Amino acid sequence: MTAFKPLVFSGVQPTGNLHLGNYLGAIKKFVALQDTSDCIYCVVDLHSLTAQLVHEDLKDQTRAITAAFLASGIDPKKHIVFNQSRVMQHAELAWIFNCVARIGWMNRMTQFKDKAGKDRENASLGLLAYPSLMAADILVYRATHVPVGDDQKQHLELTRDIAQKFNNDFSDRIAGLGVGVEMNVGEETVNGFFPLTEPIIGGPAARIMSLRDGSKKMSKSDPSDLSRINLTDDADSISKKIRKAKTDPEALPGELDGLAGRPEAENLVGIYAGLAEISKEAVLKEFGGQQFSVFKPALADLAVEKLAPVAGEMRRISGDRAYVDAVLSDGGERAGLLAEATMKTVRDIIGLLQG
Ligand code: AQP
């Protein structure tokens, strides 16, 4: 569908402890995609300022997410790992996209509505413009694929809208400079500078929910630590949190249909499936008819078995701060070269005077 060189980009904010949702929804996919694609993985520190401007320990949080990437199996030599603020072209392109995107588009974003709450007038401009920076993160590398959790689907659609509007608004200049790439948009073949990036979402763990409330996604910012399994939790905490996870009194059904209207049960089945790398159907085949008193201990054992090695590696890698910093510095340099190549052309397309 596209003639752009396939390239994967994704990012994680250094806003707190990584949890099972981040791991199953995003990081596990990052690791798997390394075998088939060139990948760029970024700790998006500039994004984290939208939630909280003054951080006590932003540098250490950035290192901790990097350690989680590496501990999970991301190879920083074959691919690129860096933190966003090292490559200022992200912010430069975000500014241009702020001028391409419309305020109405941003106002419609459910994440903005959720995070701004009732006092929208008092939310930071950065929080409103978050998706524009996210589009810049992706498109400054002209990335074609973005593995994310289900909660980021709307932002990815907006990234496509921004790319499409830029391609349309500047179509003559893109053609004049000969920097377009042919791609199919619906029935049409158009020439654009930015790809219409595809999200990679799906599988049984695309949206992991809170262990305390099956209607809320598992989140770093949930005040209850019992709502999430942190990647740094020890075996006892993992088992305790799964034991205390909210459920209903029914046994597990044998078929997927039987999970309808049972969000907490569905969530635990999804977590099991994500960790075991099998489908929810396969989990129900094994545990259908069983009570949670049987399923929860099996889930806890599986979670400990899969997460303990990652937590151990994270601790080991975090202890070597010089290594983590070297990875980010090397990745930043390599990412910076790619981003600058894109921005040179973007400045030409727009008509900015440069040396
Ligand atoms: N509950 C989740 N289930 C599946 N995937 C998830 N992701 C986040 N929560 C879940 C995915 O993890 C990646 C990194 O997320 P992020 O840290 O950049 O942003 P976020 O979505 O804002 O994460 P949190 O934990 O919910 O943080 P707060 O509480 O600060 O808002 C993304 O691919 C995301 O989809």
Architecture overview:
This is Tryptophan--tRNA ligase. Homodimer. It is found in: Cytoplasm. ATP binds at residues 13-15, 21-22, 149-151, 208, 217-221. A motif ('HIGH' region) lies at residues 14-22. It is a single chain. This protein is mainly α and 355 residues long. The chain folds into two domains: 8-204 and 321-350, Rossmann fold, CATH 3.40.50.620; 225-317, Tyrosyl-Transfer RNA Synthetase. Helix content is 52%, strand content 9%. The protein has helices spanning 20-33, 45-48, 58-72, 89-100, 103-107, 110-116, 125-139, 153-169, 171-177, 235-244, 263-276, 280-287, 292-318, 321-350, and strands at 7-12, 38-43, 80-83, 145-147, 181-185, 188-192, 198-200. The strands form three sheets. A three-stranded parallel beta sheet has the order 1-2-3. Strand 1, helix 1 (20-33) and strand 2 (38-43) form a beta-alpha-beta unit. Helix 4 packs across helix 14 (321-350). The relative contact order is 0.15. The mean pLDDT is 95. The structure holds adenosine-5'-tetraphosphate.
